[in-house]
Putative transcriptional regulator (Galbibacter orientalis DSM 19592), 140 residues
Amino acid sequence: MNTATKPNHIGRKISRIRELRGMKQEALAIELGVSQQSISLIEQSETIEDEKLEQVAKVLGVTAEAIKNFSEESMIYNIQNNYEGSNKGANSISVSNFNCTFNPLDKLVDAYEENKKLYERLLEAEKEKIAYLEKLLNKK
């Protein structure tokens, strides 16, 4: 049985956090005042100097400790277990049904009816405008 652990590859963690934040290498490079190639090298590095890690963490909006401890598995676990309405028990399996508090079709019909009313008011205003203009023309 192989008990080898995954190496703590800081560069990959930085890359993944950057991607999750929706940030491109170029944007991170600009914020750090370095080239995009430098960011690429950092993300390929297994280790990084603490000072540089602090700078990267600050730009990414996380702590250096968060980068060091980042793992995809824990992210997935947190997302699965921290949604609204989940049970917090250690051994519980939670199932939540998110029910709408309104019928979407009713809202669509309401919007259609409102649109119809607005169109009728617009049509009536146009008819009044035409009648007024015809009255002005007849006076001349």
